[in-house]
Structure to design on (553 residues):
């Protein structure tokens, strides 16, 4: 009996100690996405003092005059036009059961691109727009689309187009799982991998505006705002999934499956730190 | 099926500016596919623009015109609401035609 | 004449091109001597010019004469193409009586890329997007008043690796 009391008081004392020690330790280690995003955006603004925040959504075209001119010429009749038309047509065409994409999304899917990805508290995971589109298809008895092919690019192109100019508005709810997903995405972004031993940040944080071989690297800030993109290098459209997998391949790493937890978390992180920058997709890139 | 031809024709003063984008692979015949086999040439050879019964612009193209080709030109005349007829024919004999309104 | 070589291998195609060259160059010389007005009225696809390798042969096949450089031909092209597959190239000119505008890329397998007929009333200016195999001179030809004028610009093409 006495020993039990003794034990209990020791436990109490420990708890008291912990509560005293905890706050400063927590302050240093606790993830703080809002502070991250501020620091992230400040880094790019300091690096490119001539650019306005919204210019970053135009990627490498904002960083080089000769390229900017080629881009302006391209945008007179942009190469993603056919994909956009295809997406619009697909979006408005009902499924076999009579329902349509509009039934799966808030505001019938119009002008909502800036809210994706979001953290789904029922699933406990991040849900991207590409994932939500395929879930919509499957829920309505349709086969899912490939995440890296034209159909998915066309659908997301249309949804981005209806959201142009709306600032990214990614929310991290007060849920430790959401914060963990954000942290996982951040870790993925800064971790070196592949035979070239590059992280995403090696190119898109440390060296935007520099040439890697022939190409001018895009800044990570605003990089997803322009998705999906028509890349001249691909001779066609690509989704966020395609961008992530090719990035891994280009650094001679092993790409993950599209919409794997890691990529979903990465998209969550990368979108969140671009909060406030306008959606500009679909885009055109070299 | 949707037309392969996208046109924007805008009249301003006495000039009509025309921009067109056409969906076509424009395969050069010099590129190999994933299996290492040459993709045969497949390209638009001639693209014509007609206004008021006469041609205002004729493009003769080889294989070095980019995929989903684009062209821009202007002509004198042409009023808002006029028709502009655009047609192309490729090296395999395929073709497409559309009529656009001048805006 | 229609192209039916869609099933041919590269080698066979090259052989055929060689043969076509000889025959068509011979043919091409005939109408040129007949009537200068023919060029403007000729709606036929200049198949043979597109099959020539170098720019000199292509220009000769297309027009039957040579061009002289002119500062009245303004050729606009990027210094460094962002991607050789899509190079925006445009031309304007202050020359009068323009009947056609052509673009050639010296280092491409076939130099002639595009040739545009400019009927009376059409503004002598055109913008298009061309493919370039590698760093090369781009040559623009303007046919005006029966004579040929040219402008040349070098466009650097670098093949993409990783990034973007």
């Amino acid at each position: 009996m006495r020993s039990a009391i003794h034990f209990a008081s020791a436990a109490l004392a420990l708890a008291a100690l912990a509560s005293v020690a905890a706050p400063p330790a927590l302050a240093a280690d606790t993830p703080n996405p809002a502070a991250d995003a501020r620091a992230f955006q400040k880094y790019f603004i300091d690096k490119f003092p001539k650019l306005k925040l919204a210019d970053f959504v135009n990627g490498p075209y904002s960083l080089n005059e000769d390229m900017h001119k080629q881009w302006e010429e391209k945008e007179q009749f942009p190469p993603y036009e056919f994909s956009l038309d295809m997406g619009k047509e697909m979006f408005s065409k009902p499924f076999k059961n009579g329902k349509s994409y509009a039934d799966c999304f808030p505001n019938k899917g119009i002008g909502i691109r800036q809210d994706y990805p979001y953290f789904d508290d029922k699933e406990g995971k991040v849900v991207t727009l590409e994932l939500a589109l395929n879930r919509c298809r499957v829920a309505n008895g349709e086969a899912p689309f490939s995440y890296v092919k034209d159909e998915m690019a066309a659908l997301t192109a249309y949804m981005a187009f209806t959201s142009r100019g709306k600032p990214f508005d990614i929310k991290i709810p007060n849920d430790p799982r959401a914060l963990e997903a954000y942290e996982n995405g951040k870790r993925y972004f800064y971790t070196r991998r592949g035979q070239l031993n590059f992280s995403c940040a090696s190119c898109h944080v440390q060296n935007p505006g520099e040439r890697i071989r022939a190409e001018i690297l895009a800044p990570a800030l605003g990089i997803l705002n322009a998705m999906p993109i028509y890349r001249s290098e691909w001779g066609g459209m690509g989704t966020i999934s395609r961008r992530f997998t090719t990035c891994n391949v280009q650094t001679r790493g092993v790409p993950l499956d599209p919409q794997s937890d890691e990529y979903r978390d990465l998209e969550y992180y990368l979108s969140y730190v671009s909060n406030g920058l306008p959606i500009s997709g679909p885009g055109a890139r070299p | 099926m949707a037309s392969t031809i996208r046109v924007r024709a805008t009249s301003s003063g006495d000039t009509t500016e025309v921009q067109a984008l056409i969906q076509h692979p424009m395969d050069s015949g010099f590129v190999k596919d994933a299996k290492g086999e040459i993709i045969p040439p497949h390209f638009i050879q001639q693209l014509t623009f007609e206004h008021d019964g006469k041609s205002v612009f004729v493009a003769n193209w080889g294989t070095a015109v980019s995929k989903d080709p684009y062209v821009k030109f202007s002509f004198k005349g042409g009023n808002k609401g006029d028709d502009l007829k655009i047609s192309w024919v490729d090296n395999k004999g395929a073709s497409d035609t559309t009529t656009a309104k001048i805006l | 004449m229609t192209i039916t070589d869609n099933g041919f291998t590269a080698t066979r195609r090259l052989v055929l091109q060689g043969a076509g060259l000889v025959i068509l160059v011979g043919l091409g010389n005939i109408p040129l001597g007949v009537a200068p007005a023919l060029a403007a009225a000729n709606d036929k696809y200049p198949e043979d010019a597109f099959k020539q390798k170098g720019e000199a042969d292509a220009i000769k096949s297309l027009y039957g004469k040579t061009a002289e450089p002119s500062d009245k031909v303004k050729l606009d092209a990027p210094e460094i193409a962002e991607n050789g597959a899509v190079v925006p190239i445009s031309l304007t000119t202050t020359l009068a009586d323009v009947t056609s505008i052509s673009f050639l890329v010296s280092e491409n397998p076939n130099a002639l890329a595009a040739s545009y007929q400019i009927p009376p009333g059409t503004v002598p200016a055109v913008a298009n997007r061309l493919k370039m195999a590698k760093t090369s001179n781009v040559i623009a030809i303007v046919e005006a008043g029966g004579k040929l004028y040219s402008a040349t610009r070098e466009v650097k093409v670098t093949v993409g690796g990783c990034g973007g």
